[in-house]
Amino acid sequence: MNATASPLQNLTAKLEQLAVLPHVVFKVLELTEADCSAKDLERCILVDPGFSSKVLVIANSAAYSPSRRITSIHEASMLLGTKAIRGIALTAGVFDLFVGKTDKESLRRREWWKHSVDTATCAKWLARKSHSVSPDDAYTCGLLHLIGKTLLDKASDGDYDKVVSLVDQGVPAILVERKLFGCDHVEVGVSAVSKWGMPAEVASGINYSTPCTDESTAPALRATVAIAQRMVIRCTAETADPVVFPSWALERLGWVDADAEALIDDAREEIETKRA
After folding, report:
1. pTM here?
2. Where do the domains of the chain lie, and which CATH numbers do they carry?
3. 82: closest CA among 116, 37, 130, 15?
């Protein structure tokens, strides 16, 4: 690595190396962007037996609620469809990025992963409620919206401990990240997702912290993720502080605070059911 490079340049170079998904995931994403057959998808996944096992575990989870136990990639492809298999493959591939080298890293990344899966569940559920965005796209964005945190944690050689310490004192994570690293986890996540060749609307959808200014970048998807992640914080009691729904996200979906509040109990039940 260039010794004369700035800390941010060094960090960016590390992120380039870290933000890598398994080849089979890239292939699945490529196939599902086109009009592929279930047989093509099955052949692609079976190349990697370990990955195939992960896909089957997730396909049989409550998140996808199969009507009967799925025992083969062929069954999974036929029963769930290409969009669901795309989401499952992405889940299996992304999970490994949330594994830490130390107990402390693993503990916090496990919490980020749990929050991401809960947000994905909630976003998919909200999408079905609002009929404004694709439930599958909402799930994908919810799953990926914190990917930048684990990448920053991996690249910063222990410096993310400082972020956690200040966040525990009530300082917003995004502000601390920008001060320490020159960028925040949302920016890193958007960059990584774009690098993976995900659709532009997915890259836009995980930018849950700011409103869309461009109608072509899936503003309703971004709003859905923004509301879902706040709902998860409320429903899982991640903080004792009041959690306010972003007004721009509510407005984009044609809601007011009362509409979101009315969904809290149902959202909690949905999250708990899927966790079980």
Report:
1. 0.85
2. 18-98 (no CATH), 101-276 (1.10.3210.10)
3. 37
